[in-house]
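ZP: hey, is the NAP complex queued? I don't see it on the tracker
AM: it wasn't, my bad. submitting now with these inputs:
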Amino acid sequence: MGDGACRKMEAGLTDKVVVITGGSRGIGRATALAAAARGYRVVVGYASNKTAADEVVSQIAASNGKAIAVKCDVAEERDIIDLFEQADKFGTLGALVNNGGIVGTSGVRVDEMSAERIQRVLAVNVTGSILCAREAVKRMSTRHGGQGGVIVNLSSVAAKLGAPNTYVDYAASKGAIDSFTTGLGYEVAGEGIRVAGIRPGLIDTEIHASGGEPDRHHRLAHMVPMKRVGTADEIASAIIWLMSDEASYITAATLDVSGGR
Ligand code: NAP
């Protein structure tokens, strides 16, 4: 083993590829920067904001890291297949972070919801995550000749709280992610792949603005036992830890990172 490889093991570094859907902004962006700092070659997926994705890639390159931006709307199977084909050209896949996610307009009750809205939320948050995991398992599973790896799925505390009068469809999509983490974790536990979930609480990102209420997290901060919102970096730290060998006995499990909420 060369000196470089020794140093990488000692420092817990890796030069494998991590695919992060929605790596352009918020939690995904923070995770991309943190993963690059640990040596990962980062594939920054984005839905439409190329400028934001390119900025993440530039920031990583400025710190001598390696990253590429790939457009991928996870509601489109073709985009997902292309995302992983681009990742294959970049190196050996070691991790997937199923982060890209959306909310519908906040404050809409179930008796007011359109079918289009519900279908879009489920297509992005649930079907997209399962299809990305399919592509990752095909590459990482020892059953398919792979070297193993880690899948981290972004759930939400909404999965437990239900988000009544806010976005029950979103909460239900994250409940599905929790079941998926459990089921896929068991399915590939003997194939070198760990599957873990994170349930963030109220985190300071632009997702609240996209739900039509930019200040929602600050308005509700008093309901958090720790009496504050969380940062994208605090979620990224937990994701990076779950991806690392320090979490080597964790699979089919989901961690609340929510200040106690
Ligand atoms: P955000 O700031 O709104 O960023 C969303 C990211 O997802 C962006 O990179 C966006 O890409 C991407 N994205 C949006 N639609 C997509 C699609 N159809 N396909 C692929 N990527 C898509 O969100 P965030 O707060 O960081 O949330 C990240 C994850 O954490 C989500 O799964 C969310 O449900 C979960 N979460 C967040 C909170 C919170 O309070 N923030 C709480 C619980 C769970 P573009 O830049 O191209 O638009």
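AM: back. Confidence is low (pLDDT under 50) at residues 1-7.
ZP: great, adding it to the tracker
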